[in-house]
Automatic annotation (TrEMBL):
<dbReference type="Pfam" id="PF01381">
    <property type="entry name" value="HTH_3"/>
</dbReference>
<protein>
    <submittedName>
        <fullName>Transcriptional regulator with XRE-family HTH domain</fullName>
    </submittedName>
</protein>
<dbReference type="GO" id="GO:0003677">
    <property type="term" value="F:DNA binding"/>
</dbReference>
<dbReference type="InterPro" id="IPR001387">
    <property type="entry name" value="Cro/C1-type_HTH"/>
</dbReference>
<dbReference type="InterPro" id="IPR010982">
    <property type="entry name" value="Lambda_DNA-bd_dom_sf"/>
</dbReference>
Length: 168
């Protein structure tokens, strides 16, 4: 019998896997075929009733062109949305590659990195990434407002709504 925590983890992974598959507009049968699994076995895997292993998650990520480390991070972050958010940019895979390089460069000297130094470094990185997105959005809004008058009859666009469907 699985504990409440195990069932919650399975539910998180299941939600993430299904969200990625659906975002990729893939049918269960397509993913099952690509994984070399019978459809029923894949359905059990995606629903969390089948065996979820690291190897299967990596193979799923390859088939769906998503980020296997972001799928695993869903468990720590308690956010199935995180796996979908990282599917295209491969944020967690990039982070793991960077950590691998740090491990190769420092080796045993990693033990000399103090928690305060690590917290400061990662806090700066997350702030820089957040600032990058804010500046990108501000740049697009400002540019559209300044240049929309060049198109006859155009009204300034609300770029925050670009890409979102609106009810007609």
């Amino acid at each position: 019998m699985k504990s409440t925590e195990e069932r919650a983890d399975i539910s998180l992974l299941s939600t993430a896997l299904k969200a990625i598959r659906m975002d990729r507009r893939m049918r269960s049968s397509e993913v099952a075929r690509a994984l070399g699994m019978p459809l029923r076995s894949y359905e059990h895997f995606e629903s969390g009733r089948g065996r979820i292993t690291f190897d299967r998650l990596v193979r799923f990520a390859e088939v769906t062109n998503s980020d296997p480390f972001a799928i695993i991070a869903v468990l720590a972050l308690k956010s199935p949305e995180f796996a979908l958010r990282c599917a295209d940019n491969k944020l967690m895979t990039i982070l793991m590659i960077a950590m691998s390089e740090l491990n190769e460069t420092l080796g045993d000297d990693i033990t000399f990195l103090e928690p305060g130094t690590l917290i400061g470094a990662f806090t700066r990185v997350t702030k820089d990434l957040s600032d990058h997105i804010a500046k990108r959005d501000l740049f697009a809004e400002t540019w559209m407002k300044e240049h929309s008058s060049k198109v006859q009859g155009a009204r300034p666009l609300d770029t925050r709504r670009l890409g979102r469907r609106t009810a007609d």
